[in-house]
Structure formats: C-alpha cells, structure tokens
Amino acid sequence: MRVLPTPTRLAAALLAAAALHGAPAAAADEPGWTAGPAAGRAATPRPYFYLAGAAGSVLEDRLTLANSGDRERTLTLRGADAYNTPDGALAVRPAGDGAAAAGAGAGAGAWISFGAATTVKVPPHTRAVVPFTVTVPPAAAPGDHPAAVVATEAGHEAAVRVHLRVGGPTLAALTVEDVAVHGSGGSAVIRYALVNRGNVALAPELAVRAEGRFGEVPGRAAHAVPVELLPGRRVELSEPWPGAPALDRVALTLTATAPGAAPATARASAWLLPGGTAARLGAGLLALGTLATAALLLVRTRRTRRERPPEPPATAAAPAPEPELTGASR
C-alpha cells in the first residue's frame, strides 16, 4: 500500500466537474527520478490526471518520467485502484492485490493500460513521455472511479492520481456517525466517522455545537476536514475541541456538509470531567448504588416481617349434618 498526499480543498475551476485537488507530480521514495502528468496545452503544470467519458469509451493521456540522475533508470508502470485508509489517508493498491487483479470486476486501476510500454528505460538527464489508455467498461457505473498510475524501480514507487469520472447521474451523499468525546477542557477530543454514500468524491466540512447544563458552550465553527472522501468509503476521524468545558454534561451536535450534499447531523451526550475524576466518580457511584440497593432490600425484609398478620388458630372441623328422613311408616 502506498499512501498518497491528501488534498485540502476543491478547486473552484473544477467544481462544476466535481474534480478534487490531487497530489502534485509524484516523487520516488529516493531522489533521482519523478513521475507526473505530461504537459498539456496550458502552460500550468497539471498536478494530476483528470479524465471523463461515457461508459464504453477509451480515454488517453500521457505520463512523464524524468531522470535527473547520472545513471539509467528502468521503471515498471501499472495502474492501481485508489482508496481511503480507515483514518482517511489516500492510498493505492499494491501490485498483485486481489482487487486490482480481478479483471472486469476490479476498480478503475484495472482499466489503465500502458500497452507494450509497461517497462521503460530512461537514460540519465532525460525525460520520457509514455502514453496510456483508460478503457471504461460498457457497464461501468456513473460517478467517480479513483485510480492512479504507479511507477516502480527496485521497490521504490511514485504514484500519480487519476481522477476518472464516468458520465451519467451523480449523487453527493454524506453521513456522520459514532460521535464520542474523550477527555475534557483543553485536552478534549471529538471522535466520529464520515461515510460517503454517493458516487462522487467529497471534500467535507464539519461544525460542532454543544449545549451544557447551563446553556450553550463553545463548539467549533464549520471548517474543512483534511480528507478527500472517496465514493463508498467510511473513515474514522478525530479532532481537538479546545472550547470544551472541564466539568459539565454536554449534548453535542455534529453537522457535516459537502458541495452538492445535504447536511448530515449526528448527536451524542457525555460527561466531561477532569482527568481521573471520571474513574473515581464511576467507582464511587457504583459502590454507593450497591450499598443503597442492599440497604433497601434489608429494610423491605424487616418491614415485611413486622407487617405480616398472625395466622388464625386451628379450629376443629364441624361434624357433617346427619341426613333427615321424611315420610311415615305404614
């Protein structure tokens, strides 16, 4: 797994196309060579590949490999799926991963082909431009399909993002879940999960509102979450809450938003107690509850014994009446 740099926010010029800022031209793990998108007609270098087309189409682009060292480099090229790790980082599938090698059922990484140029020799102080194609399957679902092109030499890799969008209806949908607070005061941390339930990548923002026992307490204004949330992915995040009270019971409301998506909210309540107080208070309350329960049972037992009425004395059974004969003898 190779982790990719995380973008910070959407580019205004690409909002209409829902393309997110990606990583710049990727450098290898050691100096000497780099990989990045080949220069286009515009003078501004491209930080990533952006391709869009209908299902069944074949898209083309070019990768630049720059060798600034004094020896020849032999680089192996491949496509790979991109995904979110559980903590929100962007990563690509390693070579030979089952998901990447599953053929038609794989992600967009399997759609990328360098043809016969999967191995490229780059002489010293030379820049090589390598074309590649993206063959979108006819049954590909609409929306974003995150991928990357990866160059490898002797275990060292450089990955360049490919933002691929398949034409058709798009849906931006976001939920926030599993809200919890740990610590209190200046050391408080809010933990939560974000889930992308749509088919386009999202750049979420989060706002925090809190109510204490005596009114509203400082939360956090809407701010960008440093995550590019890919379609169908769930990430578990945490962030500091500098305005948290040191001692209070709070009701917390988290509101997550993203361009094109309806706001999503989640709520939680928690006791905020000074360090160590929570454990001591919990143990004290448990002990107090146990003692109170035992005392209540004892009082009820004694009261039941005092109030129970005495049993009546046993009486002899009354003899059964003899049958009465009627009629006269003749």
Structural features, described:
- The chain is mainly beta.
- It has 2 domains: 2-166, Immunoglobulins (Immunoglobulin-like), CATH 2.60.40.10; 174-272, Immunoglobulin-like (Sandwich), CATH 2.60.40.10.
- It is built from 1 helix and 20 strands.
- The chain has one helix at 277-307; strands at 2-4, 26-27, 33-37, 49-53, 58-67, 73-84, 90-92, 112-113, 119-122, 126-135, 143-144, 147-153, 156-166, 174-182, 189-196, 205-212, 215-224, 234-240, 248-258, 261-272.
- Strands 1, 4, 6, 7, 9, 11, 12 and 13 form an 8-stranded mixed β-sheet that branches.
- A hairpin with a 6-residue loop joins strand 14 (174-182) and strand 15.
- Mean pLDDT is 79; it is low at 5-24, 98-105, 277-287 and 320-330.
Features:
single chain, 330 residues, mainly beta, Immunoglobulin-like, eight-stranded mixed sheet, five-stranded antiparallel sheet, 20 strands, 43% strand
Could you provide a short overview of the structure?
It contains one helix and 20 strands. The chain has 330 residues and is mostly beta strands.
Strand content is 35-45%
**SS element count, helices:** 1
CATH architecture classification name of the largest domain = Sandwich
How many DSSP-defined strands? 20
The radius of gyration over CA amounts to 35 Å
Which structural class best describes the helix and strand composition?
A: mainly beta
CATH topology of the largest domain: the name is Immunoglobulin-like
Approximately how much helix is present in the residues?
under 10%
Shape: elongated
> Major beta sheet, specifics?
8 strands, mixed
CATH class of the largest domain: Mainly Beta
Number of domains: 2
Low-confidence stretches: 5-24, 98-105, 277-287, 320-330
Measured distance between first and last alpha carbons: 123 Å
Mean pLDDT, nearest integer? 79
| Topology order in helix (H) and strand (E) letters | EEEEEEEEEEEEEEEEEEEEH
Tell me the CATH superfamily of the largest domain: Immunoglobulins
